[in-house]
Here is the input.
Amino acid sequence: DAGVTQSPTHLIKTRGQQVTLRCSPISGHKSVSWYQQVLGQGPQFIFQYYEKEERGRGNFPDRFSARQFPNYSSELNVNALLLGDSALYLCASSLLNRGTGELFFGEGSRLTVL
Amino acid sequence: GDSVTQMEGPVTLSEEAFLTINCTYTATGYPSLFWYVQYPGEGLQLLLKATKADDKGSNKGFEATYRKETTSFHLEKGSVQVSDSAVYFCALSAFSGGGADGLTFGKGTHLIIQP
Here is the structure.
């Protein structure tokens, strides 16, 4: 069975540009979460979507947005990129809408902002 | 806010040594606690979890007990192998009832096992 897939795996952008990252969850999983992992730090929660609705949001500015599609895949958008947005962006899927469920992570999209 | 503190790495041990990675947390309510592991070149994966006080999570020889009185969830293994070399993350989920909450992770502990 396919795990969580993310694209692109690596990308380079310049300050002020916009980026879209994509995620396909494990088949049957209806919840998708996004995390930002800066080098040397643990992942930080950005968003969770369940059944196409936003169910949770971390402490990130409005430049970050996301959506979930009818097939449960998801996109994360970041506008007006800053150097500090350089990070590994992780997508995770799960069966449940609750935090007691197990998260299955993809390998991430590494974003470099120059 | 919620937070997780785990011991800084890297932690270097010889094969068959005893492992402890300390993790303490701050949270309101009654969080669920997790250990995730990231092997080289792979994505994060759940190692074990505990959802209430005094629960013991275990997997692959690793164990951790949810200690509410000390707000701790230390990871232990009696005899480590070279294949255990990875980055270990302690995390909590403080589900607040009104909707899903994300996981709060610690900074991670890089474990290196030498043959």
